[in-house]
Amino acid sequence: MDFFKRLLEAIRTNWEKWSVVQRVILIGVVVAVLGAVVLTIGLSATPTRVAVLGVPFPDDQSFRAAIMRLDTEGIAYQTTEDRRLFVQDLKTAQFVRAILIRENLVPANVDPWSLFDIERWTITDFERNINVRRAITAQVTNHIKSLQDVDDATVVITMPEETLFTESQKPVTASVTITPKPGSDIATNRKKIEGIMKLVMFAVEGLKAENVVITDRAGNILNDFAGLENLDRLELARREMKVKRELEERYLAAIQQSLSGIYSPDRVRIVNIDISMETDKTTVSREEYFPITRRPDNPRTPFDDSEIVDNIRLSESNKDVTFQGSGFNPEGPPGQEGQTPPAYKDLEGLVGTYTDKSSTINYVVNRENSQIERGPYRIRRVTIGVALDGIWKKKYNENGEIILTNTGAIDREYIPLNDAEVAAAKSLIEPAVGFNRDRGDVVTVQHVQFDRTAQFEKEDAEYRAALQTQRTIFWIIIGLIALVVIFIIFRLIAQEMERRRRLREEELARQHQAMREAALRSAEEESSEVEMSVADRARLELQETVINMAREHPADVAQLIRTWLNED
Question: Considering the entire predicted model, what is its pTM?
């Protein structure tokens, strides 16, 4: 109480000292604090909204179906524009979720785990476990989808609650449904299915192989390896055939390469190639003995000064026993006959000699025990058959032209291979394929005349077509030359005729000019007093101009005269 009294007294004293502005600020702060407190209490008193699902409904149809179901139950709800559904408290929300799940009103494309995607101030252990399971499931699903042979995958992991007793503990289980990509062999490839199993087992703690089920979209169990034994054998056989085919292709390439420098590719035919293989996995145990090196060779000396022995004496035991004297046959108790057989009784009292000599020597030798494991495959036998063709040569005449037969075909000559050439080809093929006579390899090379009828007919047709084309081009050239010659001759004749015509015209023009000049001279001589008119004088000047032009440009004047004549 004293504290409040002192506080009020201090406020009253300061209030009297403060100005009007300071008093207004203090009143505003007090009003703001009181308003915030009242607003907080009011908001706390109003009921909070709880989302039914952590995500909005994906479509209007499912949203309307859920709303109609809530209207039937008489449950108050609120909706948003993005199709979210809210109720007044958590208990009502749990009841609504149960109804939607029971009535199958939760959309199929809504994640079942989204029921737990609700914002809260606190989180329970059950929800933490759910989140852990969701994270593991999502990660495993993403890993499986990232595989090249998987188009889509669905993973369901069940983690039971821990119990007190191990006997009553339920196991962790997982089911995987995959959709293989088109053309993938994951459904029949055991290694790939085992890889998916190990991926799931290593991601989930406590998961065992017998509790993992992998199926395809048709419901076929893919990790039932007991039923994949036949498929494994087929896969093994397929791989063996693939290795055999690769070896045969490699041998074919080696044969072609060895013979390509001598024979053209069309003269070599590999009739048969077969490689017998052993793919069984075998292990051979071997024990080997070798000498003991007591002193190694000194590399500084020019000779071998090493000391090698077959063995080394380890121990020796000798025995030498000699006995000489009479034998003694024991009898039974006094007064009773002994059990000595009659045959030995006859020897009693005889004197004999006994000698026992023996010697035991133990030697040490170098010994090595080893196990040899054969490779994944071993070639048991190689069989190869190769056919070689001879040489076809075309015949030519003295002029270097190809000789044709009566049918129009090219005349050819066949030169067969001799035994030496066949043997040389065989000697090239054998090292190329790793020939081994001890394992029964067979390499056969024979000279065979190939049937080249179709090839020769094609060559003959092409040659005849080339000849026909050559002849056609020749006659075309001759025709063109003839046309050019005729054109040149015609041109020369035309020019000569033109020259003669021009000369005649020039001669006529000279004659007319001479006649005119003679007439003028005669007129001047007669001293005609008749004066020339203006028209006559102009005509005379024009004639003189034409004469001068004809002298300077006779070709143009002749062309002009021809034009006048043609017009007339």
Answer: 0.37
